[in-house]
Amino acid sequence: MRAKASEMASKDCVKVAVRVRPFNKRERDAGSRCIISMTSNSISIQDPRNSQNSRTFTFDYTYWSHSGFSRNKDGLFVPEETGGRYADQASVFLDLGQGILDNALQGYNATLLAYGQTGSGKSYSMVGYGPNKGLIPTLCQRLFQSIRSMQDSRQCQVFFSMLEIYNEQVVDLLSKSSRSAGGLRVREDQQTGFYVEGLRRVPCDSALQVEQLMEQGTRTRTTAATHINNSSSRSHMLIIVQLKQIFSKECITKQSNIYLVDLAGSERQRSSGSEGDRLKEGTAINLSLTTLGNVISALADMALGKKIYIPYRDSVLTKLLQSALGGNSRTVMIATLSPADICYEESLSTLRYAERAKKIQNKAVVNESPTERLVKELKAENAKLLLRLSRLGQEGRKAEDESKELRRLLTHNELQIRAIQTLWEQHLQEALKDWETQYATITQERRMMQMYPYIMNVNEDAQLSSVVKLFIQEEGEWDIGLADNSPRALSIRGLGIQEKHAVFSNQQRRVSITPVSGAKVIVNGLQVSKRTELQHLDRLVLGSNSTYLFIGFPSERSAEDWSRYDYDYFQSELAAAEGFHIQSLCDDQGHRPHQPDPSLLAVFYDYIKLMPMVTEANQMSAELKKGVEFKLEIKNLAMSDSKGHDLEKDIAVKVTSVESKQVWMWSKAKFINRKFLMEEVYQQQVAGGEGADRAPLPRDRDPFWDPLEPLHLGSAHLWLQSLAFRIPLEEQVEMVGPEGTEEAILQAQLVPCSPAGLALGEDDILIDPSELLGKRLDFQLVLDQCCGLRWVKEARNRGVQIGFQVFDCPQPLYTPAVWHNVNPLLDHRVQFTALRTSQDLLNYLQSNALVLELWGLQEGCSELLSNMDGMKMTQEDSVIIDKISASEHLTAETGSSDLSSSLRALHQDLDKLRNANAALKKENSALREQLNSSRNGVENNRGRQERRGSLRPSCDAEFAKALKVFYHSMTSVRGQLQRLRRHKPSEEEDLLGLRLFVDEHTFLLKDFSEQLEQCVSTLKHDVAAIVRRKREKSGVWS
User: Fold this and answer.
1) Residue 337 and residue 44 in contact, taking contact as beta carbons nearer than 8 Å
2) 476-522 pLDDT per residue, tens
3) Contact indicator for 619, 544 with CB cutoff of 8 Å
4) Residue 232 above 80 pLDDT?
5) Which residues contact 1024 (CB under 8 A, 6 or more apart)?
6) For residues 229-268, b (16+ Cβ closer than 10 Å) or e, as one string?
7) Distance CA 677, CA 624 (A)
């Protein structure tokens, strides 16, 4: 199409709208807090971890759909109060959809993009649910209303297409034929740009017909998702409504393309750049969304005047959206947000993305052309092509490639001519016949729903749930599985589904399911291996993750709301069956269930989200014979920092080679990225068939393999308080793993020493730690032996290292690696020196522990090396710590006002010292009087003076010794307290088991109480004895 000569292209920025949805059930149950606020066209988001940190963005439209609404008698969500701030579906359409429609009727191309994380409300805004129609169905309804009102002045033709982009492949969701390998091809036309070759265009004359086509496309999309094991959140859906307006009197045709795009979940883009993954750029699943981000960023820079390359051709999605982004289209983007604090990162990412998009400038023109002239031009172009073909035929084989391209162009032009000349009514009649067939099928299904029990699919995307229904009809047995060669077979596809997977039995109005040997069937969260009778609304999981809801006979159905049995419900039920639910997680961490920790909630929902993905990864590994197992683990569940505060929890995936026992630990983002790559490999193998030649992937491209790296196995705490008193500490500490398991026992010492490394004696023990301030402190960390290494017990070809980082050391230090030994001798000694002990260091010693981290090594992985960059050493090779104290910084930065306050404080100290000096003088005079009046001999007097001279230091030494004994005994008490905290009953315990647990717990509590009482009693006894001896030796202190 050529633009009308008088129509000048004007720059038109992309309009951006942001919509905030209500809390979903998951967020309500979690007690989530709203972190989004709106004022006019501005939207602010607050960091839940720091209330002072917030960001504000401004957009063309902002919609508050989070609160302030109610459901009316027609089922519509409307504002609670007239003129309330709640934005319903109608108001969103009025701003966005009506503008799209008006532009299309004027002859402009128009595009509506929906962007946001999975579950943020994209589908609700675009499609809607129930009576709350979204933008797409409302736009189509209004379009046909407009056509009917304008039928006297023009003839209008509407064509509807629906496609999906997954893994850089285009799938026609309305195609009658089976899906072609590799999907449809995207071609480029010099005049109209990129298009999908062979995409079905269905003529429509009513909104009802469009609605039925959307339902058909959704059904195809659901079936395809099951067959190729994809999730709708990783695919893009495009609906193309082509409007052709023929003005007979003016001999003019206006043609507009309306693109309605539901983009993949925005969290997929971030996962594709998973940290530290060598294969992060390898997946094509994320390519379209990543490239779309690059295109938007480049166009935003271009709008600022920069000359920059726009990478449209790097992905299928951006090729098809070239006109929508920076081209011939008027474009609107709606970004949808979750307002919950647990979705902060994704919501902030969405807002930043939308902010870039609003800077894009398009150049929209009216697409109109003389109809008859277009046919003549196409025929003339065909004649030229035929002439070139005849010349190429004379030149021989060397022109074969060019000849193929010319023939393709010739065929394309002939199809265009035929499409223009073919009567619209003929197209419409053909489409109506197809529509009637589809309608009959849908009517038949609805009739069967009122007669028979059936199973109904449940999908991660609510839009794709309840689409597939498999009926268990008259009495008898019905096989379910891959096979479809029997009239009594229910055919399903999916990972882990066998040819004959299970058998449904319908006898005397009772339905049961019996798994075939080796088939995985789960009913209500529990795996079954024998005949199991089903009740209405039972949950079924077949194979790895094919989820279905069983709907009983009509007489068994009540008015209960089935919608609560969504995909999350299925996964939560599976997790609970494994003993993992939010209540147990909160109990393990000492949180009350009604006040859960937000970080625990985030971990719980991540666990639920990743469970099916891990199951599918295990199934692909088994089918591809990779010999790798995947298991979800919670990082830092039982771990704390140097102050004893709980570390932030996170999800990790443990990857184990069954044969070699090699272990990897992948982050959540890395696993998701690898899962995409595994799907690509799996699809290539499945497409090749059983007899295909399967060349093994090179290791560096295999998503199931990674180079070996040291693994963090656990940690122990060595409390530093004894160093503040210069008391040596010798402990056996427990190395605890991320989930609370005992990984090893470590024998460690903290030894106060001289600069030369000689251990200090009891006379050097301090009563008051402040005596250390400004003085030199030397101590040694001694790691003697590690006992009972679980890591090495599992495989003898493994080794370990221990890492630690003291105070302000810039890098952690590591022990030398020890291999093949369950109880290795470490004999590792490091000396640390503070040249002038600061208050910061003293505070650190009194309130912190030294965290000793256990690292696991495997054959082929590199050892951890101590990086001495930035470290300073003494002449005795001791590591210098406390290089710059915070107090010195503060002193250097204070002004003259601080100096005066310091002087006042010094005067006060001087007065106190004078008073103390006067008291000492008075005491000395009293001593002299007693000495002069004594009747004892000179020798006795001398002996008494010697005793008095040695009395105070000996008492100090005795006090220090008592404190040392007390600190040592409290170490064992602290260990007993940790054992009490970890002592939890199993979820599967019966009544007898719970009684045994109570008895054992009572014994541990009694033991802890006795140990604590003994420690305190011993300290009291020692102090009393010291005081008594003082009184006996001197009457002055009595």
Assistant:
1) no
2) 899 999 887 788 889 888 888 999 999 999 998 899 999 999 899 99
3) yes
4) no
5) none
6) bbbbbbbbbbbbbbbbbbeeeeebbbbbbbbbbbbbbbbb
7) 13
